[in-house]
Specification:
Domain Tip attachment protein J: 559-660
Pfam family, one: FNIII-A_GpJ
InterPro entries: GpJ_HDII-ins2 (IPR055385), J_dom (IPR032876), Viral_Tip_Attach_Protein (IPR053171)
Number of domains: 5
Domain Tip attachment protein J HDII-ins2: 259-382
Shape: elongated
Strand order of the largest sheet: 10-9-22-17-25-15
Helix content: 10-25%
Largest sheet: 6 strands, mixed
Transmembrane segments: 72-94
Oligomer: single chain
Radius of gyration: 36 Å
Number of helices: 9
Number of strands: 45
Distance between the termini: 60 Å
Length: 705
């Protein structure tokens, strides 16, 4: 898809906006461009008649004014100036009038926002985002539903793990067909033969679970727990970790793809229960049965004696109409505690199968008790082990008997990613930069370069699936300055120093790449700027004024200013952030202004601020102080108009404003007498020698001089 915008009136902004599918047509075959100037992504097209619009392009058509292109660029553009620090409202998540004022300051860091059609400023809506399952008031919960987003790690996080596979393992009696299948789709074997017998050891179940921690690679996986309990406190635990490289080894105790299907049906004597596998690629089947109340026969003296129960497991291909291939099974026990048995049928021809369990001798009387339940049907798909390249993996094999409750363990862990790859246009080489620097994190989200191993040659290669590196080259100095400012050492409030801004975030919500990059940059008080197809960044940081707008550089009668009330300002801030010392759970605290108690009659407008990617309390406290200071000093909003030819400043530059707008209404009254150039008023007026004053006289006949 590409956009065509026709500017019908450059003074009123009237325009026509249409969207078109890419079909390889020239622009002149889509729209009449006679006597029109053509801009593509903000850049003028010298020979538009041969231009073919591409997917993602924004094409602007406007009348060719007298004087050619200089006239077109001489449109009067609105510049909004706010005496305030800039923030993006979507990042702040703030309320109250204080919050609304800050949100209104979005992009004011630029010293103004030039018309979107020329500069292609991002116009995405925050409604496209979803709630993150990683961050909340409790530990992150394992995601068990399919179709979830694959998250990306920057810094240190505790992600909400995605469940990939699980299997309850019980020692099995194993059977195989007594003869191999002669040909695919041919007759199935009529009998099974036993391959492995039950050892007679006490019933023990093991749970095998595989989780994903999003895209890799990461540098480390540590502090693995179930809930709040370290994994070291459990018995019979085996852990395997994969950091998310593209050449990582498969998990050893998941040699197959296994799908457990819960049946939970009582098997009564003489009544068959039939279920089908959930895959047509099945190579093996495992039937798990339980007797929750045990298997026993009561003797006359009240003691238990052995009781043998019998049942038949039958298998046939689904929809084939074949006769059942059956295996008779029996269990002998004398206990009133749970008994479990599993029966596995291997080397089956690939397909979908019906499985039948028929109890033939399962007494439930006052002397003999054996209530049978078919608990699980496990489908094995033997297509080889899955490596799952570039995915962070945590595999857990744990003794479930007498250790775990029913269900999937709430496993959580910490993972760290400390480096990203940044292309230096001067050295023409990739360099490692800190993933905790919010500026370089934003760069990585946009560029997304990975160092991958070519499994054919064994050599490492750089692979980019984001914006090409040359789109950052022209403004690379801006990226370096912004990153250096984020890395400056500042007082941490505890007698030591730390980096000014640090990002610890797990991106696992649906959003566009540019939005996600802006979220990361906002942690460093920065915002991204599109210069046509090039990408720059600007930061709210100390600097020198690059241009002063005086009367000679503004359009006549366009200067306006607004003042905001001090009384309605927020005098305290409620900060919510994800504290690294509290398992990255939501943490709140209040910060009150130093002037909070000066006037108790004022209303208490507390602003609520949610900080994304901030995990240090010291950094969150600095942000709170900054918001309060900005709120106290953000007093005036100024708007003016200027011709493009009057602009010397660029995006992100600090500017000044000089004006001679009178402060009308300082005093009012009547004129007592006039003597030459002397006017006597009916009251005393206090004036300051450094200021210039004017008197406006209103005559009785409603005429003004």
């Amino acid at each position: 898809m590409f956009d065509i915008i026709i500017i019908k009136n450059i003074l009123t902004g009237e325009r026509e906006h249409t969207r078109h599918e890419y079909e390889g047509q020239r622009l002149i075959d889509i729209v009449d461009i006679k006597d029109l100037q053509v801009f593509v992504n903000g850049i003028p097209v010298a020979i538009p008649y041969s231009y073919i619009p591409q997917d993602g392009d924004q094409v602007i058509l406007t009348e060719e004014l007298e004087g050619g292109m200089k006239g077109a660029l001489g449109w009067i553009l609105q510049i909004g100036l706010m005496v305030a620090a800039p923030f993006v409202g979507g990042w702040l998540g703030i309320t109250s009038k204080f919050g609304q004022a800050l949100a209104a300051g979005a992009f004011m860091i630029l010293g103004g926002k030039i018309i979107n059609s020329l500069c292609h400023v991002n116009q995405a809506h925050a409604a496209e985002q979803e709630t993150s399952p990683t961050y909340g008031w409790d530990l992150p919960q394992v995601q068990t539903r399919e179709g979830g987003l694959i998250g990306e790690t920057y810094g240190e996080t505790m992600p909400a793990g995605q469940l990939l596979m699980y299997h309850v393992e019980t020692e099995s009696e194993t059977y195989v067909p007594d003869q191999p299948q002669a040909q695919p789709g041919g007759p199935f074997a009529k009998l099974f033969k036993k391959k492995h017998s039950y050892s007679g050891e006490k019933d023990v179940q093991y749970l095998n679970v595989l989780y994903s921690g999003g895209y890799g690679p990461v540098d480390s996986i540590d502090d693995i727990r179930i809930g709040y309990t370290p994994i070291e406190n459990f018995e019979g635990v085996q852990i395997e970790k994969r950091l998310g490289t593209n050449d990582q080894e498969p998990i050893s105790f998941f040699p197959y793809t296994i799908a457990d299907q819960s049946i939970d049906m009582d098997c009564k004597q003489g009544s068959a229960v039939i279920r089908s596998t959930d895959s047509d690629q099945c190579n093996a089947i495992e039937v798990t049965t339980t007797w929750p109340g045990g298997i026993y026969s009561v003797k006359d003296d009240g003691n238990f004696e052995n009781l043998t129960v019998k049942f038949i497991i039958g298998i046939r291909r689904t929809g084939s109409g074949d006769t059942w291939t059956e295996q008779a099974c029996e269990v002998t026990e004398k206990v009133n505690s749970t008994v479990r048995r599993s029966y596995k049928f291997e080397n089956l021809p690939t397909g979908r199968y019906d499985v039948r369990v028929l109890a033939t001798n399962m007494p439930i009387t006052s002397r003999k008790y054996a209530q049978m339940r078919w608990s699980l049907l496990s489908t094995y798909i033997n297509t080889g082990q899955f490596v799952r390249p570039n995915k962070v993996l945590i595999a857990l094999r744990i003794k479930a008997t007498n250790q775990l409750n029913n269900g999937i363990p709430a496993l959580n862990w910490r993972q760290k990613r400390m480096h990203v790859l940044v292309f230096n246009p001067r050295t023409r080489q990739y360099e490692e930069k800190s993933a905790q620097n919010p500026i370089w994190a934003a760069y990585d989200i946009l560029h997304h370069c990975r160092r991958l191993k070519n499994v054919s040659t064994g050599q490492f290669e750089y692979v980019v699936d984001g914006c090409p590196a040359d789109r950052f080259s022209k403004y690379f100095d801006e990226w370096q300055r912004a990153a250096a400012y984020a890395d400056e050492m500042v007082d941490d409030g505890n007698g030591s120093t730390e980096k000014r801004f640090q990002l610890d975030a797990f991106f696992d919500t649906k959003q566009k790449r540019f939005e996600a990059a802006n979220r990361a940059a906002n942690v460093g008080h920065a915002t991204l700027v599109r210069h046509g197809v090039n990408l720059g960044i600007v930061v709210d940081m100390p600097g020198t004024i690059k241009q002063i707008f005086g009367e000679g550089r503004t359009t006549m009668s366009t200067f306006t200013g607004n003042f905001s009330s001090r009384d309605e300002r927020a005098r305290s801030v409620q900060i919510t952030y994800n504290d690294e010392q509290r398992d990255f759970k939501n943490t709140e605290f209040f910060v009150r202004s130093a002037k909070y108690a000066e006037n108790r009659t004022l209303q208490d407008n507390t602003a609520t601020v949610t900080l994304f990617g901030v995990s240090r309390r010291s950094q969150a406290h600095r942000e709170a102080l900054y918001y309060l200071a900005t709120n106290e000093r953000q007093l005036q909003t100024i708007q003016l108009s200027a011709d493009v030819n009057a602009l010397v400043c660029e995006y992100g530059d600090l500017i000044g404003v000089a004006h001679t707008v009178p402060r009308i209404g300082l005093e009012s009254g009547r004129i007592v007498s006039v003597d030459g150039n002397k006017i006597k008023l009916d009251k005393e007026v206090t004036i300051t020698a450094a200021d210039v004053y004017s008197i406006i006289v209103h005559a009785p006949l409603m005429m003004c001089w």
